Amino acid sequence: MALKLAVYGYDTDIGKLVIETLEEQHLPLDDFFPLSPLSGEYDAVMIDKKNYFVEAVDSFDFSKANVVLLLSTQDESSRVISMAQEKGCVVIDNSHLFSGTDKGELVVPELNPYDIKHGIDKKLIVPAMAPSLMLLLLLSAVSDEYGLARVNVTSLESVSELGRLGTETLAHESTMLLNGLPAEHPGFEAQLAFNLHPRIGAVDEDGYSDHENIIKYEVKEILGKIERGFDITCMQVPVFYGHTMSVSVETEDYATLDDIKNVFSNSALISFNDIDAFLTPVTDIINERKIMVSRLRQDNTCAKTFSFIAMMDNTRRGEAINLVELVKLVEKSL
Question: Average pLDDT of 126-152?
Answer without folding.
Answer: 98
